[in-house]
Specification:
It comes from Cinchona calisaya. The chain has 498 residues and is an alpha+beta fold. It has 18 helices and 16 strands. The structure holds adenosine-5'-triphosphate (ATP).
Length: 498
């Protein structure tokens, strides 16, 4: 049985207490989107920007920061506030989810029904699965309607004028889940996070599943229901081999998600919690799979998503060690456009959070890219994102990455049993993913290319030949120096650990 204690979550609430002590008000940040719209600082001139992105051959994302739009009208069309934004109401969350699922009236009505039932707590059992059309894009912008995204939609439902595919996920009764998990027996518990307990279960047809029981106590019913809907809406929307698969849900007798069971549990448990030495081939496969899954979330799924909590505990491993990104509890829909925004609270897992996020609450694809860089470092080194002496893996690894020192970086358990070329690719990719400036981090498309060895930049070739970085060390170029970054990181660490 796998039970793991997840790394401490850092939240704005923690910071709030301290900031009050310090007399500073960091509760909310009003931030202006930059000219470049991708987390780039305003001071950066075009010229400097071009100079610095020598090896980052990528298209910048057209959209950047997740926020609550405060100027009114636009948010009606494009915002995607969700559960963790403290100021959004349950209705706003529901509306955001509806937007994510599609814009057709019928779907919205059905979604509202589910939402209303959960909200009122009057539900006994949903007899009709309300998540029709999930996974289809009715985006006004693209004018396209992507059909057939529903997993396993073999039959159609006749809804008056429209024939819609029947989704494959089910609405379970509480009794079914009780039976599947031996009444949520402690023996069946396979994982526990900050918000949920996860049980291994066997359905009446013999299928083995993971039942995620939402346990978050600190929030009120509305918030909990909002969070549940948000996670359900997102996980139902996605369809990729490297993302967790939804089998069903239950809002009867508590909130539950029923997910495909991952026999090897989480990457964290395999990498850090067992005697098993994960061979390099699998580590690299996991890195590739997570990169592809994240690329899908950021770019390819019908409505784009930021995960916000990429950690080794949130990567599950299938029978064949195929990684699956899981835990969409903090995930957000990517909005279409923004002008101003407020981001709070800041939630995530310490050790994986990008500096612009933990310092200013700025969330965009590049915050996931930073976390992916930390995950790569974990795979390379076998170390935790934050070790028992509270040392950050990023800070430990940076000098070794700079020296291109694979021998010292590589997990001692690997010995010399790794592919040198793949190791160098992974090291180079990690080094740019953890760059303190988001604009200098690659996007996930580029990350996939780099790991595959496609379109290798000159700097990587130089590094592969044993040389140090010749082109640039952005730490020397930026006002926001490594020292400042270290100070910020230490300050953040103090706040969280106090
Ligand atoms: N489908 C699954 N198959 C096997 N194990 C799972 C599955 N889903 C979750 N787990 C285990 O349960 C743990 C907790 O799950 P999860 O991360 O979804 O909970 P959470 O409370 O939402 O976490 P967080 O604290 O990050 O919010 C995972 O780290 C993993 O070990």
């Amino acid at each position: 049985m796998e039970k793991e204690k997840k790394q401490a979550k850092t939240k704005m609430e923690v910071k709030e207490d301290v900031t009050k002590k310090d007399g500073e008000n960091q509760e909310t940040e009003e931030l202006r989107t930059s000219k470049k719209q991708d987390g780039e600082t305003e001071e950066e001139s075009e010229e400097t920007y071009e100079k610095k992105r020598i090896y980052i051959d990528e298209e910048e994302s057209p959209r950047s920061v997740l926020e609550i739009h405060i100027s009114g009208s636009e948010s009606d069309h494009s915002s995607s506030s969700s559960s963790s934004f403290g100021s959004s109401s349950l209705d706003e969350k529901s509306a955001a989810i509806e937007r994510g699922l599609g814009n057709k009236d019928g779907q919205v009505v059905q979604w509202k029904n589910l939402f209303g039932q959960i909200k009122k707590r009057s539900v006994r059992r949903f007899s009709i699965v309300p998540l029709l059309w999930v996974g289809q894009d009715f985006s006004k912008k693209s004018g396209r309607r992507k059909l057939g995204r529903n997993r396993g939609s073999e039959e159609n439902l006749d809804c008056g004028d429209m024939i819609v595919p029947k989704p494959s996920w089910r609405n379970f009764s509480f009794e079914e889940l009780v039976e599947a998990t031996d009444n949520f027996s402690p023996d069946k518990m396979i994982g526990k996070g900050g918000h949920a307990e996860v049980y291994k279960g066997r359905l009446s047809d013999g299928q083995i599943v993971a039942v995620k029981k939402i346990t978050k106590q600190e929030k009120n019913d509305d918030d909990r229901a909002g969070d549940f809907l948000s996670e359900l809406g997102i996980i139902a929307h996605i369809n990729h081999p490297n993302a967790a698969k939804l089998i069903g849900f239950s809002a009867d007798g508590g909130l539950h998600l029923v997910l495909q069971f991952s026999p090897h549990g989480s990457l964290a448990s395999v990498l850090h919690g067992s005697a098993e030495n994960l061979e390099w081939k699998i580590r690299f496969k996991v890195a590739m799979g997570v990169a592809e899954g994240l690329h899908y979330l950021h770019c390819d799924c019908p409505r784009r998503i930021i995960h916000r909590d990429i950690t080794a505990s949130n990567i599950l491993l299938t029978e064949g060690y195929e990684p699956q990104i899981s835990d969409f509890g903090l995930a957000k829909w990517l909005p279409e456009k923004w002008a101003h925004h407020v981001v709070s609270p800041i939630e995530g897992t310490f050790g994986y959070m990008a500096p612009e996020y933990f310092m200013h609450g700025i969330v965009h694809e590049k915050t996931d890219v930073f976390a992916f860089g930390v995950l790569l470092l974990e795979l390379i080194t076998g170390r935790r994102a934050v070790d028992s002496s509270r040392q950050s893996l990023v800070m430990w690894a940076k000098p070794l990455l700079e020296k291109n020192n694979a021998k010292e970086l590589a997990d001692p358990l690997l010995g010399d049993k790794y592919d040198g070329v793949e190791m160098k690719r992974a090291m180079f990719t990690a080094s740019i993913c953890i760059h303190h400036l988001p604009s200098l981090r690659p996007n996930m498309k580029r990350v996939v290319q780099l790991l595959r060895g496609e379109k290798e930049p000159l700097e990587m070739k130089q590094k592969s030949m044993g040389g140090r970085a010749l082109l640039l060390d952005a730490c020397d170029l930026e006002d926001y120096s490594c020292t400042t970054y270290l100070k910020d990181l230490n300050r953040h660490m103090e706040l969280v650990m106090e």
